[in-house]
Design a protein that fits this description.
Largest sheet: 2 strands, antiparallel
Distance between the termini: 27 Å
Strand content: under 5%
Oligomer: single chain
Strand order of the largest sheet: 1-2
Number of helices: 17
Structural class: mainly alpha
């Protein structure tokens, strides 16, 4: 929050690059114990680097208009899913690797050459960030945004928030409901990821290949629904998308418990699983957008967008590493239990926690949609629709009504600041004060 985006990106990608280097060297270490510990260290470093996923959503929060935020978050999530789906396929290009480097000290094979690939991709990402990433507008711009913030009982929006102010804002329903939502859909999804293999093995006789095929095919459903959310978000409120997603999720996980039985038909496993996975895009991007809007509206939290996005990502991660153990312990039935039961269900009734959590989220989202500040229009907006205003009026010979993209707007602002020309711009609505500054290229004033 205090150092912009380039430094955190560079540091995290640098740590991940170091992890790839350690992974490549692991096989050259003298003992098996050293090799195992080196691989563990490399994966820990990779995990530290992967924590930068929250930076992308924080950047979107800074530079994207609210009416575009769900669309952009959907694209960001879609690219991540695409990378996860395509990543394993890269092994095809590494299967014939057999090289010796460093004077025969290290032999590269299809296993450890992955480390070099990770190093190369991270270094490429660092180069792109160094060249293309523009820091969003900060101090002057953020000061101007306070005029549309909810300042509570404070007379001046310039007053620094106390810990009590921050705590009160954080514990509001507008913040807690999206946190519960992102925890819920990640926790629920673990029922599929953790439960499918043992349940399908007992009920359908599926092996690893069949299970992997079923899980992999879900990526196509997720991708299609992300495109659908991208289109719908331009016309449908985020809260409606989110309520619809949780409703679909609640029904899907109920039937997942009800239909996953021994000697069931394949469709009884696949249909609830696909509906549960299909709800994922309706939950991810709208949750992020509602959360970002809530943080933006909260006067005490506005300077902590990066921290708050990290908190949201952390809650998602907590669901990912806590729930599998709980599912394996309390939801899955041992084959002997399935045999002894009358229903022959592979999952016990504890599985219905997923439906209960989804219904709770529906109530919470409906509450903040009706009574919270998240859906209230910002000052100067027309109704709920937020329109992006052009940041610059071009010269007469240029186009009359050119609406700049977020990136070009930031670039233009950066150039203006280099001329030491103060401009106050809301990066979400693109509304600005009009003032003349020297046009160094055309030799006459240009309005900003």
């Amino acid at each position: 929050d205090g150092r912009g985006f380039r430094i955190p990106y560079m540091v995290s990608l640098g740590v991940a690059t170091l992890g790839g280097f350690v992974y490549t060297l692991a096989s050259a270490l003298p003992t098996a114990s050293w090799r195992i510990h080196a691989i563990l260290l490399s994966r820990l470093l990779g995990g530290v680097g992967a924590a930068n996923s929250s930076l992308g959503f924080a950047y979107v929060a800074h530079v994207t208009p609210h009416d575009k935020m769900t669309s952009v978050n959907s694209l960001l999530s879609m690219v991540r899913i695409l990378g996860m789906a395509m990543g394993p396929g890269v092994n095809v290009f590494l299967r014939n690797v057999d090289l010796t480097i460093m004077g025969g000290y290290i032999t590269l094979d299809p296993l450890n050459s992955v480390g070099l690939l990770l190093m190369g991709s991270n270094l490429l990402a660092m180069a792109f960030i160094a060249k293309l990433l523009d820091e969003p507008p900060t101090e002057e711009v953020n000061a101007s945004l306070h005029s549309s913030k909810s300042t509570g009982d404070h007379d001046s929006p310039d007053e620094e928030p106390t810990r009590a102010d921050i705590g009160k804002a954080f514990l509001s329903a507008d913040i807690l409901v999206p946190i519960l939502s992102i925890f819920t859909f990640n926790a629920n999804f673990q029922l599929i990821e953790t439960g499918l293999a043992p349940a399908a093995s007992d009920a359908l006789g599926w092996g690893p290949v069949a299970t992997s095929t079923a899980l992999g095919s879900m990526s196509f459903v997720i991708m299609f629904n992300m495109l659908l959310v991208f289109k719908l978000s331009k016309h449908v409120p985020d809260a409606v998308l989110l309520i619809g997603g949780h409703a679909c999720s609640a029904v899907a996980y109920f039937f997942l418990w009800f239909l996953w039985r021994r000697d069931a038909h394949v469709w009884q496993f696949v249909v609830p699983m696909f509906f549960g996975a299909g709800a994922f895009p309706f939950l991810g991007a709208p949750t992020r957008s509602i959360f970002t809007h809530a943080v933006d509206r909260a006067w005490a939290l506005d300077k902590y967008h990066g921290t708050m996005q990290a908190v949201l990502s952390m809650c998602s991660s907590v669901a990912g590493f806590v729930t599998p153990g709980l599912v394996a312990t309390f939801c899955l039935r041992h084959p002997d239990e399935v045999t002894a039961s009358e229903s022959k269900r592979e999952l016990n009734s504890t599985t219905l926690f997923a439906t209960v959590l989804s219904l709770t989220c529906i109530v919470g989202v409906a509450y903040i949609y009706a009574f919270g500040e998240t859906t209230a229009p910002l000052e100067g907006d027309e109704g709920q629709e937020m329109k992006k205003q052009p940041m610059m009026e071009m010269d007469e010979e240029a186009s009359d009504g050119v609406t700049l993209t977020e990136t070009s707007a930031l670039l233009q602002q950066k150039r203006s600041q280099s001329l030491k020309t103060p401009i106050i711009v809301d990066p979400r609505t693109r509304q600005s004060r009009s003032m003349s500054v020297p046009n160094v290229t055309a030799g006459r004033p240009r309005k900003f």
